[in-house]
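hiii, so i know i said id send this last week but things got crazy w the move. better late than never?? heres the sequnce for the chain we talked about at the cafe, plus the structure i predicted for it. fair warning i was half asleep when i ran it
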Amino acid sequence: KDAVQKCTFERYDIILCDHNMGEGQTGQQVLEELRFHKRLKRTSLFILVTAETSKEVVIGTKECQPDGYIAKPITKALLQKRMDGLILQRQALLPINKEIDLENYPKAITLCSQEIKSDSRYKNWCHKTLAHLYYQTGDFQHAQKIYEDILSKREITWARLGLGKVQMGQQQHSDAVEQFKKVINEHQDFVEAYDQLSEAYEKMGKRKEAQIILQQAAKLSPLVTPRQQHLGELCTFNQDLDGAISAYKAAVKCSQNSVHDSADNYLNLGRSLCDKSEATETVESKEYAEDAISILDKASHKFSDDCVKAHASLIETRVHKGQHNEQAS
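okay and structure toks below
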């Protein structure tokens, strides 16, 4: 908390952050919070240090895209080598990142183009950043040309994914689906491709397919709260109550101490459990009803907002009514 607070008022060149800090936030959640509140500039370096080797933590950490990722045990030589490389790159690309921080994208585009023409050792980074800047500013034609030029020479994952995103922006959803499928076939752990494929299916009105793909993404990387929240919404739309309960439970769990912690996670879980209690037989129905009341009580106590308490009470009213407990209702 102290470190996050300091980043509100100061800009640091380098932040070294352990993934596991005991009680409270993980390093991944610290990075999420700093980015969410725009307290971390692109001109700063955020380096995660970790002894974690579990697949879900490693993939989840990579998704957050820290500037560096150092596995324990750390030696002086290893730290020196990694830091020297990162600092050298950050200094070389400082003018571009400064303009991006200022949201002066035309200037950043010009600087990227100049860096590429100078045959910089960071040409690959500049191509990727330039294409993303064009995409971000809605210039899909220029972004597409960069991605296609790169892919004409060799297969690069970020270029294939970028091309799919550009096609999504141009409403060419079927073409985008093929791009994302190619990425997944080549790299089955590339979670962003699953997210994008799910979104493409959703835009095509294929919400069941979108749910299946997003469930695969959540299985690979379950610690990303917005993914679990969206999965819960898809499951609810598709009337998959078990899927919705599972997703919202995961959202409640992984959002603890996170910037993504919200009353909606609890209320949506309560609604899903309520729906399930109304759709099942007596014994199971009672268990789901009890779980719903428990999570709704937690919401009322955790979030002091009167609106949250009102919503929780209304859902609990329906739970009691479904259990034929008119007095409690």
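btw Residues 282-302 form the longest helix (21 residues). thought thatd interest u
miss u guys!!
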